[in-house]
Specification:
about 350 residues; mainly alpha; 14 helices; about 0% strand; globular
Length: about 350
């Protein structure tokens, strides 16, 4: 059996086994997400699923990553561990947004210090700044998209599957093992998190998933193409959480609402407001993620002109969607729910 398959199966089985245990621990220690006006769920849900995801990921790598000594792998695990602990702390006591941001930057710096950084401008300062923005941005994007049963875990699993496929096609060991472990961990947890969810991953899971996906996106390399083209591949694969983040930030700035405060103004909530059930809304966003991943597979083999042509088309569609969901329908209240037309 190949190491990748062993890593995937180990992470999957561990997550399937550990998630119910994490739920019992959360109930015992009172780590419960209570319903509120700015949350979509209507009943108390235990919040410790992220611990099961983290454990499945790390244990699978420790047991079957036959080149575990790779410094960058150690840096990713250390940074991800800190990010997961930060998430548990936030789930437990509720950290101020500034404290969370500082903690996320520290995790990103750990990653960059071990050589996991962008190579685009061939300038250490510009590349480091871009890496920092990417890591913190994607980490928060996965956290923000964790707003409906099964959404963040499912999108993370789809992204991990595409990263795994691309890495396998390009012979990239580090990205392959990370993606295989993440895919197994996310799928194992998703069984308990899909609508109706019996447990949430919490910030411990969402921040962890976003951090690892950001690292995987940076480490993805293409021997037969240039960085001028291939930077689009991870952006496309993570297109749904990136779009959702841009939509929410723009909407809150326009309404002069705090960016860091939770709300019901995410893409998934707007789909539900237009008549879809929560389960169907999540499934549509899964399909969007799969479609963008398929486009990424095409782009990675293209020359610069056709690749940027596709990028322009995707960008235009994103702008039209932004207009449709934010500007064409007026009457969002402070939580993002469209009011009935008068």
């Amino acid at each position: 059996m190949s190491p990748l398959l062993l890593i995937f199966i180990t992470a999957l089985v561990f997550a399937l086994s550990a998630t119910p245990l994490a739920r019992q621990i959360a109930l015992r220690i009172g780590l419960i997400d209570q319903p509120s006006a700015r949350k979509f769920h209507t009943r108390p849900i235990p919040v410790l699923g992220g611990l099961a995801i983290y454990g499945a990921f790390v244990i699978a790598l420790i047991l079957f990553a036959d080149r575990f000594y790779i410094p960058q792998l150690i840096g990713i695990i250390v940074g991800a561990t800190w990010m997961s602990l930060l998430g548990i702390w936030d789930d437990r006591v509720g950290l101020h947004a500034a404290v969370k941001l500082i903690g996320q930057i520290l995790s990103a710096l750990i990653l960059i210090a071990t050589g996991v950084t962008v190579i685009l401008f061939q300038n250490i300062w510009l590349d480091t700044a871009l890496a920092l923005i990417w890591i913190v941005g994607v980490t928060n994007a996965l956290n923000l998209v964790d707003n409906m049963d099964g959404l963040s875990g499912g999108i993370a699993a789809i992204a991990a599957a595409f990263f795994l496929l691309i890495a396998a096609l390009n012979g990239q060991y580090l990205v392959s093992i990370l993606a295989a472990a993440l895919l197994g961990a996310a799928l194992g947890f998703l069984l308990y998190n899909f609508n109706p969810a019996s447990i949430f991953m919490g910030d411990a899971g969402a921040l962890f998933l976003g951090f690892v996906l950001a690292a995987v996106g940076i480490k993805l390399r293409f021997v037969n193409n240039t960085y001028v083209v291939t930077w689009m591949v991870p952006v496309l694969i993570l297109g749904v959480p990136i779009f959702d983040t841009l939509l929410v930030v723009l909407s809150r700035l326009r309404r002069r609402a705090p960016i860091y405060r939770g709300g019901l103004d995410h893409l998934s909530h707007r789909l539900v407001a237009r008549g879809l059930s929560p389960r169907v809304a999540v499934q549509w966003l899964y399909l969007a993620s799969i479609a963008l991943g398929a486009i990424a597979l095409i782009v990675m083999e293209m020359d610069i002109v056709p690749a940027y042509g596709i990028g322009i088309v995707v960008g235009a569609v994103a702008l039209m969607a932004l207009w449709e969901f934010e500007f064409s329908k007026k009457g969002f209240d402070e939580y993002g729910i469209r009011k009935s037309a008068k």
